[in-house]
């Protein structure tokens, strides 16, 4: 259940990194 939340957080953090 928390996996989806972690994936979303990772995506949000990865977007600005690019």
From TrEMBL:
Pfam families: Ibs_toxin. Keywords: Toxin-antitoxin system. Belongs to the Ibs toxic protein family. This is Type I toxin-antitoxin system Ibs family toxin. It comes from Escherichia coli. The lineage of its organism: Bacteria, Pseudomonadati, Pseudomonadota, Gammaproteobacteria, Enterobacterales.
